[in-house]
């Protein structure tokens, strides 16, 4: 499935004071934190290297099935091996994390003679737990969308999706929402905010040992990040220093964030998100490898005038 990295890293104790300070410096239009020394952000490179998530691949998006709550519960039985009770569903399309954990704890142990179908169901349950608690939790952190099961139906091809960009899309959206006046709860992969912003050394054993999948991805493209209903823009050209390059004065950004933020799954069922975001899917699919004009730094880390 490609979720081994997050599963192995596990949970970190969150520094809520640090996260609050970062949220206060988040700019929704650029998707960067603004500091006195310049801009920094979480990039596709960070998601790939820290968690080993796939960045290349198909976007995590689908047309939402027009199922009733009963049909979703039957789908759970088919995909996870149990039929949720009415009280175990938070909404028509989401299951409570507490119910999912309890069900997983009481599933038969996996051993060498376990049928592959049962192994797959257990793997899907573990993946949902990771998605709902660590990789892309919502603000409540108490439920996870069953729509993600669509991408896990065939566990042998689940790694073909760009889970790294989906995680980053959710994180960006949560930061954008939390940075607004009056907002309090925040979701998303908060663990990715608790690291030191220094360039990765490609020659270090920690990086060189990750394998081609994590070190050859096109993580410097300015491109849309897609997670079902969410679309956010990746702006690596604003943080060249994180890629061991000289930071140029970045161009002005297109103010698309307001229109993108107005799109949400709230109040919608059976919606065709593939059709809604067709232009962004095409943009992602046809994105070109990034050819930076910025130079790898050997002296100053910023172009003249950057801090003015």
Question: What are the key terms here?
Answer:
308 residues, three-stranded antiparallel sheet, 8 strands, 12 helices, alpha+beta
Describe the structure.
By secondary structure, this protein is an alpha+beta fold. Helix content is 34%, strand content 9%. Strand 1 and strand 2 form a beta hairpin. It has a three-stranded antiparallel sheet. The chain has helices at residues 4-9, 16-24, 44-51, 69-80, 97-105, 116-135, 163-178, 205-208, 212-215, 257-261, 273-276, 278-285; strands spanning 26-27, 32-35, 38-40, 89-91, 94-96, 143-145, 223-227, 230-234.
What's a concise summary of this model?
The chain is α+β, with helices and mostly antiparallel strands and 308 residues long. The chain is 34% helix and 9% strand.
Using only C-alpha atoms, the radius of gyration works out to: 20 Å
Give the strand order, joined by hyphens, for the main sheet: 1-2-3
User: Could you give the order of the helices and strands?
Assistant: HHEEEHHEEHHEHHHEEHHH
β-strand percent reads 5-15%
Q: How would you sum up the major sheet?
A: 3 strands, antiparallel
Number of strands: 8
Tell the overall outline. globular
Task: Report the mean per-residue pLDDT as an integer.
Answer: 87
Total number of helical segments?
12
Label the structural class: alpha+beta
Separation of the first and last Cα atoms? 46 Å
Proportion in helices = 25-40%
Spans of at least 5 consecutive residues with low confidence: none
């Amino acid at each position: 499935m490609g979720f081994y990295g997050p599963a192995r890293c596990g949970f970190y104790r969150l520094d809520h004071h640090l996260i609050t300070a970062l949220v206060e410096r988040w700019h929704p239009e650029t998707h960067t934190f603004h500091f006195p020394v310049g801009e920094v952000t979480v990039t596709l490179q960070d998601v790939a290297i820290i968690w080993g998530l796939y960045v290349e691949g198909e976007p995590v998006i689908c047309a939402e099935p027009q199922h009733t709550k009963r049909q979703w519960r039957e789908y759970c039985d088919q995909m996870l091996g149990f039929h949720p009770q009415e009280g175990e569903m938070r909404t028509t399309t989401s299951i409570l994390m507490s119910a999912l954990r309890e069900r997983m704890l009481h599933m038969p142990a996996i051993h060498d003679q376990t049928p592959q179908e049962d192994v797959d169901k257990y793997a899907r349950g573990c993946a949902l737990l990771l998605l709902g608690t660590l990789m892309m939790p919502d603000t409540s952190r108490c439920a996870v969308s069953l729509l993600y099961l669509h991408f896990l139906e065939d566990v042998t091809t689940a790694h073909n999706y760009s889970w790294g960009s989906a995680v980053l899309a959710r994180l960006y959206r949560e930061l954008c929402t939390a940075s607004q006046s009056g907002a309090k709860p925040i979701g998303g992969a908060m663990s990715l905010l608790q690291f030191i912003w220094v360039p990765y050394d490609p020659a270090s054993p920690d990086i060189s040992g990750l394998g081609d999948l994590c070190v050859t991805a096109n993580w410097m493209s300015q491109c849309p990040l897609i997670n079902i209903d969410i679309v956010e823009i990746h702006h690596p050209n604003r943080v060249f220093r994180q890629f061991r390059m000289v930071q140029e004065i970045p161009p002005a950004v297109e103010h698309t964030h307001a229109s993108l933020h107005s799109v949400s799954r709230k109040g919608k069922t059976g919606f065709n998100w593939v059709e809604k975001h067709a232009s962004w899917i095409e943009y992602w699919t046809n994105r070109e490898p990034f050819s930076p004009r910025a130079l790898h730094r050997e002296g100053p880390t910023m172009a003249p005038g950057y801090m003015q």
